[in-house]
Design a protein that fits this description.
heterodimer, A: alpha+beta, 6 helices, B: about 210 residues, about 0% strand, globular
């Protein structure tokens, strides 16, 4: 059995040395673990940057490919269709019977329609036009040409946005086709004398089309008659937007609202 | 009631709540804490009251505690090539502890040798575990590692209770300076219970 003095000596020694060693060990562990945490976070950040760079690279490749397809469509198919239209118009001048004239006229009309549709597809595909300003310009040009052709007065108002807002090709095309369908319906069914188009931008991009003097329509009847309204609702749903119709005293009001937050500013 | 016993009861309640909620915790932790509560709150006071000493209860409980700590580290190192040697060591150590306990059941003494060597083996395993955490495993927040908190509790207990555990049998013969070391043991027990509580609260990730 050890004596009391020895025990006291050992206890005092152990009571000082062991907590000291433990404190040193714990501090070392905490410092080392913090270093490991820092290295881990740095590695995670690097990985994130790498991943983002990869996504950007992929997007750039897709955009490049879209632009390439658009320009090839424009150069090859476009020139071919224009030649068909030109030749059919030339042939029209030399026909002798009404029957032949009708058939060639049909070829010319189809070529025209195809050229117009293809130009819309090319516009939607080309990433150079992925902005709101371009969409507004395109809608304005189409509306003025189409309504002038059908002798309907147009009042166009666009409140420009101070910032350049990016909007993808698919969304541009969907919005444009909805406007196109609404204008087509207005010309075909509404008997409107004048159409007011107003475009505003805040958190949402809003397009209001007022058919002054329009007789309006029955929604259910329109759905049962054709695909127009169904297609518009499908397109607006695809881009997370909203489409509303209101019958006002002065005419029929159609409102399209598209949230801009889903595209980068 | 001593503060470490209250903390032990809190640990038990936390583990029951976690069990009901289906949240994961250390393997067999609830069983171990239930046993600890039974020993600390019922068996030890009962033996102290009726037999005037509860050393044999603690001598047996020592074996269970050290076995449980070693078992936790074994689970941690299960995939290591040397884990079978660790298992063999745990079995041998436990057998030695049980035999030592049975052979000294009629004596009034503390089996401090097996406690000290058992805790030293736990300390070595803890150092290996810390080394693994730092240099081999992928980084993960310590908040999700209950074994770290339990280990810190054990090491703090070992260090603060070291004098009384080493010289326990001397104090049984000459209890003149026992009070101050009993106080140290109480601190050690509090730190150990806090280690259990931290491990119980720890939101362990499901594997």
């Amino acid at each position: 059995m050890p004596n009391g003095e020895n025990i006291t000596y050992w206890i005092i020694l152990a009571s000082f040395i062991m907590p000291l060693l433990l404190a040193i060990a714990l501090i070392w562990f905490i410092v080392s673990y913090q270093r490991k945490k820092y290295a881990y976070e740095l590695e995670k950040k690097d990985l994130l940057v790498l991943e983002q760079a990869h996504i950007i690279e992929k997007q750039e490749l897709i955009e490049k490919e879209r632009t390439r397809i658009a320009s090839e469509m424009h150069d090859d198919l476009g020139s071919g269709l224009t030649t068909i239209r030109f030749l059919s118009e030339k042939a029209l001048r030399n026909v002798k019977t009404v029957e032949e004239s009708d058939q060639i006229m049909k070829i010319s009309d189809y070529s025209n329609k195809l050229i117009q549709n293809m130009s819309e597809i090319i516009w939607a595909m080309n990433s150079r036009f992925d902005n709101l300003t371009n969409l507004i310009g395109y809608i304005r040009r189409y509306a003025s040409e189409y309504l002038e052709e059908n002798e309907i007065e147009l009042e166009f108002e666009a409140v420009s946005h101070p910032e350049e807002i990016t909007i993808s090709g698919e969304k541009r095309r969907n919005l444009f086709l909805i406007v196109k369908e609404l204008l087509h319906n207005a010309v075909k069914h509404s008997k409107a004398a004048k159409i007011k188009i107003q475009l505003t931008t805040d958190d949402n991009f809003k397009i209001s089309i007022l058919e002054v003097g329009s007789i309006g329509f029955d929604r259910n009847q329109l759905i049962s008659k054709g695909n127009g309204l169904y297609n518009m609702e499908k397109r607006i749903h695809n881009i997370n937007g909203q489409l509303e119709f209101k019958q006002l005293n002065i005419g029929m009001l159609s409102c399209i609202s598209y949230p801009l937050l889903s595209d980068s500013k | 009631m001593s503060s470490y016993k209250i903390i032990l009861l809190m640990v038990f309640l936390v583990l029951i709540i976690k069990k009901v909620q289906g949240k994961p915790t250390l393997s067999q932790f609830l069983t171990f804490i239930t046993l600890s509560c039974l020993v600390e709150l019922i068996a030890a006071p009962y033996f102290a009251h009726y037999y005037k000493n509860n050393l044999q209860v603690y001598n047996f409980f020592i074996i269970i505690c050290v076995f449980y700590y070693q078992y936790l580290y074994y689970l941690e190192f299960k995939r290591k090539p040397w884990s079978k040697y660790l298992l063999l060591f745990i079995i041998i150590w436990t057998l030695f502890g049980v035999i030592n306990y049975i052979s000294g059941i009629d004596k009034i003494h503390v089996n401090n040798l097996e406690y000290l060597f058992g805790l030293l083996s736990v300390l070595v395993l803890f150092i290996i575990y810390i080394h693994n955490l730092l240099y081999q495993k992928e980084y993960a927040s310590l908040k999700t590692k209950p074994l770290v908190w339990l280990s810190i509790g054990i090491v703090l207990f070992f260090i603060s209770a070291f004098p009384i555990l080493t010289f326990a049998n001397y104090f049984l013969v000459d209890p003149t300076s026992l009070d101050i070391y009993t106080y140290l043991l109480k601190i050690g027990n509090n730190l150990l219970s806090l280690g259990y509580l931290s491990a119980a609260i720890c939101p362990m990730e499901k594997i």
